[in-house]
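Why do we care about 3D structure at all? Because function follows from shape, and shape follows, mostly, from sequence. That is the central idea of this module. The next example makes it concrete: a single protein chain, its amino acid sequence, and then its structure expressed as tokens.
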Amino acid sequence: MTEPLPSYTECPSKSAPQISEALGLNRLKAERIQLALLELPGWVLGAEAESINRPYELPTEEAAVILLCLISELSRAQGHEAKLLVFGRSLTVTLSSPESRGVTEADLDLARLISFAA
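And the structure:
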């Protein structure tokens, strides 16, 4: 026989981890982000610690589009979004989490993946 589902009053209390925390969606402090960026060459902290950015200068426009496609696929695989801006041979990647109004651990994870792949 199956056990009954817990009632609303039996649900975990506020002391239990929140969903956003469990998913790595809490906004990180600028100091924590700066420490992580030491291991991510080329990435810089945006204004008011609301994003991290990585500019790329590619040899050709075609290479910029190919890198854009690669980063887009990596982002989709991670279930995260990257803002991508291509202008000629230049590509700028911007990572942030709108739901936390800043940079989260998920953004840093995606930056690590992009840095490894690019």
